[in-house]
């Protein structure tokens, strides 16, 4: 709880700093409508960057869980400016990532900072917190849906308790949740069915929240994150979820950050945006083919928007970026990055 409150205070503090001194983090600007081409220094990789919508049916949004399921993209809970209260349990779906339809709401408690994944032909939602409630409501429950409309509470009290901004990843036919438990310990738990859970590791690396986990080349990788007063730019790898190794990074190593995006695209792992403790959010992009040697993609167009707490998804041959928080407020942009 202490760490989650720190995230909220940090966000408000950054908003204050940006209003007083825009040079500290850079002024937030809209991406130019339509495609622009960004070229790295070595001219070996080109991305076409397109803003597909500025603010559509969902309004501005951040901290939403975004997954691909049954041929559609789904947005699950989070913050939406068109919802009252803004922290909600709304479910939205889209056939193309651009046009969205409201599916349902109020099947489970309103929340953000939750974890969302697709596993065993279901969408899963775990943990989170309702920051619009007074006092805040902390969740340690597990929900699932076979169609995105009807939801079932699988567990009211997960064995790891409530978590804030954990990661939820499918690996080797299991689902892994990685985060700081309600007992304030960094833990890795796994499940083969979403109901029975096994503790894989306790304190395998420094505790953190708002990190990202990705599967690449048959290993899981935990990237970045933060604990109260400290952000990370480290990467930890595991081939079983139990034993973890701290990688030695080289090249253009990204700065310490949390609330960033990570995805696999074009046989590379990409790290996008995020924010530091007293700097950010960032408008930068890094990629790696081996998780150790990193390269910064140096041109994101004339005016990229610094972002944190957005959702990232590889979909339809491109990287998609959904919503997020710039250095002032939530935004409603959906942007694609496509190799050309």
From TrEMBL:
PROSITE patterns attached to this UniProt entry: PROKAR_LIPOPROTEIN
Key words, A-Z: Kelch repeat, Repeat
UniProt cross-references to SUPFAM superfamilies, sorted A to Z: Galactose oxidase, central domain
UniProt entry tagged with the keyword Repeat: yes
Keyword Transmembrane helix assigned: no
Protein known as: Kelch repeats protein
Organism in which the protein naturally occurs: Zobellia galactanivorans (strain DSM 12802 / CCUG 47099 / CIP 106680 / NCIMB 13871 / Dsij)
